[in-house]
Amino acid sequence: MTVVNEWLSGTRVGNWVQRCRESRRLVLFIVAIALLLDNMLLTIVVPIIPEFLYDIDHPDAPLDGRPVITTTTTTKEPPCDKYINIIRQLSPDFNESFYTTTSNYDNLTQLEETQSKKTKKHEDLVDETVAVGMLFASKAFVQLVANPFVGPLTHKIGYSVPMFAGFIIMFLSTIIFAFGRSYSVLFIARALQGIGSSCSSVSGMGMLAERYPDDKERGNAMGIALGGLALGVLIGPPFGGLMYEFVGKSAPFLILAALALADGLLQLLMLQPAVIHQESDPPSLRSLIMDPYIMIAAGAIIFANMGIAMLEPSLPIWMMDTMGAERWKQGVTFLPASISYLIGTNLFGPLGHKMGRWLAALIGLIVIGICLMCIPLATNMNHLIVPNAGLGFAIGMVDSSMMPELGYLVDIRHSAVYGSVYAIGDVAFCLGFAIGPALSGTLIKNIGFEWMLFGIAMLDFLYAPLLISLKSPPTKEEKKSLITGDHSSVRYVTYQNEEEDE
User: Fold this and answer.
1) Residue 69: exposed, middle, or buried by beta-carbon count in 10 A (0-12, 13-18, 19+)?
2) Residue 250 above 70 pLDDT?
3) Within 10 Å of residue 248's Cβ, how many Cβ atoms?
4) Cβ neighbours of residue 157 under 8 Å, at least 6 residues apart?
5) What pLDDT shows up at residue 352?
6) Which of 47, 205, 348, 495 has the greatest number of CB atoms lying within 10 Å of its CB?
7) Are 388 and 376 in contact (CB under 8 A)?
8) Nearest in space to 31 (alpha carbons), one of 308, 226, 300, 261
9) CA 300 to CA 251: how far, in whole Å?
10) Secondary element (H or E) of residue 78
């Protein structure tokens, strides 16, 4: 890398590269691409893994197989014409075809066998939900464990090195997904992705918060970065479903690995990963966790994403079970949610700052609850379009409001070092995607798909009013004045905030 820098220095290309390295927009682009690829890998498996694992466990009866049912017909020898005439005279409703068709008993036996197979398939699919849910949740659980280490690490060595490490780990995970042919190998690949996601998400959001110190600009930048995340969620399921249907399981992962390699080269050239020490003292992770306002913002992210996390492993299987949905339909069903999430994150980046981020998140949680209650009422794929679209838009409202709110809370209540607070934000995101898939299979077996979604909707309704406390959180000076009893600093901060609003 040093040789390349020496070759570029002093040349016209070198000057252009140097300007790019200093550009905040380029940093935003790199972070958005990293989030896009990470979430493509997160969601590309949604239409692939459930059916792939089912076919591994049931090689003689794959989901796309159409077993041929041979029908044995029993025909009766037609009686002689003399007896037929006698029967006709005694019974005007006599039907000669009775003697040349399959008996009712045979038809009933075949019907019972078909019903038995359907019941067995339903039970197998419900059991499959548990295994798929645990596999999907493994990424979030590992990411959850890694975040408390990655956040403080960024305070010591900067954001660029963990960001690049996230790319390397994600690339390895993608390759393992491409060639994995057993549940245990796919489980390892999913868990490994959790470490890479932790590095990319925490470093990326911290990098943006540092490069965009103005609260309004930061909100816009994070809305765009979350738009990259949304685009990954948007592209992943339909891309994975179509490629799996018409090309094969490995193809989508190999394409994604090539894109990840290009992103890694861009990071290597433009970000120049190197150890950079922070100048200001970072807030301790414990002090951030003990801050009730940060915890309320993080809790909103948890409950907003828990519903869609429960749907990822369970909705494709529920559609297979109740609608007989094909592979591409299982992937496309998440398309309305992804498109509306992309719109919601870009719209409420700037709009959340104007209307109040607490209000945007509060409305978002209520809309999420309503949409979750509508999903089990669907009887075909078209009925899922509106609730899924509303669900994605509302989650975008919450995420694009609460992510910059975390940075703002650190600015006014702690010190402007962001690694740990975005580790908490990512922990919140992971908790939603860990609890959701892990519980979905068990809840479906015990209370059913419908009551599972009704339950999480009730939690969203109950949590929403807590966001009112974020309307005007106290600053550092106000906290100190409450402890010491000196209210002069409070009056000064209030006056200063009024001047900024004007």
Assistant:
1) exposed
2) yes
3) 11
4) 275, 276, 277
5) 83
6) 47
7) no
8) 226
9) 36
10) none
**Side-chain-side CA neighbours of residue 33 (13 Å):** 19
Tell me the three-class secondary structure of 299-344, residue by residue: HHHHHHHHHHHHHHHHHHHHHHHHHCCCHHHHHHCCHHHHHHHHHH
What is the SS3 assignment for 380? Answer: coil
Q: Say if CB 313 and CB 132 are below 8 A apart.
A: yes
Coil, strand or helix at 180: coil
Per-residue CA distances from 129 to 81, 154, 163, 334 (Å) = 61, 37, 33, 18
Is 398 in contact with 300 (CB distance < 8 Å)?
A: yes
pTM for the model stands at 0.68
Helix runs in 464-487, H state only: 476-484
Mean pLDDT of 311-329: 73
Local structure of residue 279 (DSSP, 8 states): S
Write down the pLDDT at residue 75.
45
The answer to whether residue 16 scores a pLDDT higher than 80 is no
* Banded pLDDT at 364 (limits 50, 70, 90): very high
Distances (CA, A) of 419 to 130, 151, 224, 308, 353: 34, 4, 19, 26, 22
Name the more confident of 87 and 368: 368
Spatial CA neighbour of 150 closest among 427, 383, 413, 342: 427
* Cβ-count burial 393-421 (b if 16+ within 10 Å, e if not): bbbbbbbbbbbbbbbbbbbbbbeebbbbb
Instruction: Reduce the DSSP state of residue 289 to 3 states and report it.
Output: helix
Q: How many residues make up the chain in this entry?
A: 502
- Among residues 206, 238, 251, 247, which one has the least CA distance to residue 225? 206
Is pLDDT larger for residue 316 or for residue 479?
316
Of 389, 46, 432, nearest to 238 by C-alpha is 46
Angle among Cα 246, 249, 252 to the nearest 5 degrees reads 80
Amino acid letter, residue 313: P
Residue 468 has a pLDDT of 93
- What is the structure's pLDDT at 393? 92
Residue located via tokens 């978002």: 364
In this structure, what token pair is assigned to residue 406? 């975390």
User: What are the CA-CA distances from residue 386 to residues 47, 144, 383 (Å)?
Assistant: 20, 32, 7
The answer for residues whose C-beta is within 8 angstroms of residue 327's C-beta and 6 or more apart is: 47, 51, 64, 241, 244, 245
CA distance 34 to 31: 5
The CA-to-CA distance between both ends of the chain, in Å, stands at 48
Instruction: Say whether pLDDT at 490 is over 50.
Output: no
